[in-house]
Amino acid sequence: METKMTDETLANEAAKPSRLVDARGRGTKIEFRGEEEFHACWYPVALSSEVERGSLIGAPFLDGRVIVYRTSDGIAHVRSAYCRHLGADLSVGRLVNDTVQCPFHFWRYDVAGSCVDVPAGDPPPPYAKLFSYPTAESLGLIWAFNGETPLHPAPHFEQSEAALVIEAYRNPLPMKVESSIVFLNSFDLQHFRVVHGMPIEVDLDRVTEHEHTLGYEARVSTPEFGEVVQDRRLWGVNTVTIASETGGRKFYQLHSLCPVENHATQGFLVSATPAADFAEDDSARALLAQSREYALRLVNEDAPIFDTLSFRRDNLTASDRFLAFGIQYIRRYPRAHPGRELIR
Q1: Where in the sequence of the chain do the CATH 3.90.380.10 domains occur?
Q2: Rounded to whole angstroms, how far apart are CA atoms 160 and 52?
Q3: Under CATH, to which class is 161-336 assigned?
Q4: Residue-wise pLDDT tens for the chain (344 aa)?
Q5: Smallest Cα–Cα separation from 146: which of 341, 329, 339?
Q6: What architecture is the 52-145 domain classified under in CATH?
Q7: Do 278 and 285 contact (CB within 8 A), yes or no?
C-alpha cells in the first residue's frame, strides 16, 4: 500500500517539540531502538570483491560477529560466526567442499548451517546449527537481512547492473553513533544547506512511502555537479540510493550503513554510470571519480559531528518539518534480532 506524506502530517510532527521542550533541559532523548534489537533492514556486511569463491571472512555485525563466504556455485552466505561446540570463531577456519570447517575441532557446517561432521566420530548434535541470515548480492555489496523474512528487495538502482560500471567501497571513517541517526540526515534539509553547501528543495507533497521504502525528488545545487535533480529512494532506515544526470550522462550513488556495535556504524558507498562506451569515454571515468570525491566529502564532513553527537529532539523549527517526519518514520520502523544468541 502506498501512502503520501501530507502537509498536515508534517505540520503536526513539527509542532510537537514546542510541547516537549523544557527550558531547563535539553528536550526529549530519542531512542530509535532498544539495546537488544536492531531495525529489520538489509545491511551491507562486505564488499563482493572481498569474498572470492571458496573464501571465508569474518565481519562485525549488529552487536556480534558473522562469517561471510562464497561457495563454489558463486553464491554468498552470511551466518553466525561462532562454532556451536565451544565457540571458536569460524572465520579462522576454512571452506572444505563448500562446508565451513571449525579451526578448533574441525566440526563442519553445510550450506544450510547445520553441523554435518564431527571428526571425533560422534554424531552431529541435532541443535548444532548456525544462524543463517537472508543474503543477497547487489551493487558490489553482500547484504544480510536482520530478520527471518526480508521486508523488501535488497537495495538496487533502476538500471540493471549488467548495463553499469559500478565502484563499491567502504567509508574510511566508521562513526561512533547508531546507524539510524546517521540515516536521519536524509531528512535534514538544514544540514545539507549549511554543512555541505548544498541548497536543496524537496516537494514534500510528493514524498511517498511503499513497502518500507520512501521515495522523493530533490533539487540540489552541489559544488561538484552544479544544479541537479536527484531521484532519491530510502530503503528501510539505513540506505539511500540516488539517480541523477549531469552533462547528459546518468550516474547513480548509494550510501548504506551497517551497525557493527551497539553504537558504531560502518558506511558503504557505491558510484555507478552506464557502461556504454565507458572504455573510450574519459568523461564517464571522470564522472565516477568525481562521484567518489563527492561522497567522501560528505561523509568526511559528517564524521566528526556524529562521533561527538549527544542526540536529542529539542527545539525544532519550521524548517525541520521533513526532519520531524523522518524521526517518526524511523521510530515506527520494524525491529528484530533473531540471531542475537548466536552471533555474540
Answers
A1: 161-336
A2: 22
A3: alpha beta
A4: 445 555 455 445 554 544 445 566 787 788 898 778 999 999 999 999 999 999 999 999 999 999 999 999 999 999 999 999 999 999 999 999 999 999 999 999 999 999 999 999 999 999 999 999 999 999 999 999 999 999 999 999 999 999 999 999 999 999 999 999 999 999 999 999 999 999 999 999 999 999 899 999 999 999 999 999 999 999 999 999 999 999 889 999 999 999 999 899 999 999 999 998 677 678 888 999 999 999 999 999 999 999 999 998 888 999 999 999 999 999 999 999 999 999 99
A5: 339
A6: 3-layer Sandwich (2.102)
A7: yes
